[in-house]
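Researcher: We plan to redesign the surface later, but first we want a full-length starting point. Tokens attached.
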């Protein structure tokens, strides 16, 4: 099969059968005959343990759903999905892992996986030799999914190209105070990657750069990274910081934005996937990790999500000069806890 999303999904069958059971229940609540029919349906179509997988994901539904649907189609494995923000999902995975209620964490920058390695089990993907060696964890605790450069965007009706910021330093100019669309780090893994990238490009410590940048936001912090593009496009903010794939998709849909690759360099940190400790369906978890870096899935991500593949046998078809820094993932992971604590301090002060 050359494309994802074809065929029927096992989860749909289960949903239909559950709906049938509920209809029977509602039609005659006290009827023992109906109750026996419900129990028969539930028992007959119960998904066996060896055909189950529990995935926690911080991806948007438009990303995770076609991938998981195709995985189900090809393997016959039924996937239980838990979705939310990166920080939220990592927190929930930690709790679920203790009780053996999670197999996979899917989504979030690899610096978060580095910071939380104690959560994961090592797994070496079957096509590891085809993956870009720059995006491979030598200890096999995480597997990179796609490469995600950080870019600037601006409202092209309100800001000209000549006026738009071209470097991270220019973002800190007083002319942009209160005009930068940026999401709360507690709800967005991308926002942490942005701060970590700014630190490394400007060669500044988080204790120095984060308070300065937070002040530059002027008390205007968005609830989620999904708001960045719409808020810039409708003129609520003049500029924003986001992922290349998000910007390209919006531009392709005709939004009034333009994109800039920072001239002083930017990161292209991959998002990751990992098998969780105490995974109740570890064999299926391994199959899922192999699947997301398989050729078909990676090609689909490039063509439909505007993402860069981590495979060396797939090219990125879009133009643009990307000056990529040698992003220090281990440094970013080491600093994560302290940076989040500082962010919370700044938010609490700002709310007083």
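Model: Full-length starting sequence:
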């Amino acid at each position: 099969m050359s494309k994802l999303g074809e065929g029927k999904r096992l989860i749909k069958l289960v949903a239909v059968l559950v709906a049938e059971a509920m209809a029977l229940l509602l039609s005659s609540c006290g009827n023992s005959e109906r109750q026996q029919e419900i129990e028969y349906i539930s028992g007959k179509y119960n998904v066996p343990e060896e055909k189950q997988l529990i995935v926690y994901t911080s991806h948007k539904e438009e990303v995770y759903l076609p991938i998981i649907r195709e995985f189900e189609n090809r393997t016959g494995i039924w996937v239980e999905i838990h979705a939310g923000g990166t920080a939220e999902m990592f927190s929930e995975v930690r709790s679920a892992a203790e009780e053996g209620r999670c197999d996979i964490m899917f989504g979030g920058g690899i610096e978060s996986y580095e910071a939380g390695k104690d959560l994961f089990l090592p797994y070496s993907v079957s096509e590891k030799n085809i993956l870009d060696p720059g995006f491979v964890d030598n200890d096999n605790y995480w597997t990179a999914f796609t490469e995600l450069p950080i870019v600037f965007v601006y409202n092209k009706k309100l800001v000209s190209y000549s006026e738009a910021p071209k470097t991270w330093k220019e973002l800190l100019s007083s002319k942009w105070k209160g005009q930068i669309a940026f999401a709360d780090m507690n709800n967005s893994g991308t926002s942490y990657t942005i701060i970590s990238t700014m630190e490394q490009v400007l060669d500044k410590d988080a204790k120095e750069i984060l308070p300065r940048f937070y002040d530059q936001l002027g008390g205007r912090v968005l609830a989620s990274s999904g708001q960045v593009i719409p808020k810039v496009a409708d003129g609520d903010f003049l500029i924003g910081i986001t992922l290349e794939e998000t910007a390209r998709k919006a531009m392709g849909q005709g939004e009034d934005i333009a994109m800039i690759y920072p001239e002083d360099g930017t990161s292209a940190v991959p998002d990751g996937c990992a098998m969780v400790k105490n995974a109740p369906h570890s064999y299926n978890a391994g199959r899922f990790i192999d699947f997301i870096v398989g050729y078909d899935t990676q090609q689909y991500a490039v063509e439909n999500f505007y993402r860069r593949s981590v495979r060396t046998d797939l090219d990125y078809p879009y133009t643009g000069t990307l000056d990529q820094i040698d992003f220090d993932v281990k440094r970013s992971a080491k600093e994560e806890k302290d940076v989040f604590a500082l962010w919370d301090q700044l938010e609490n002060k700002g709310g007083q």
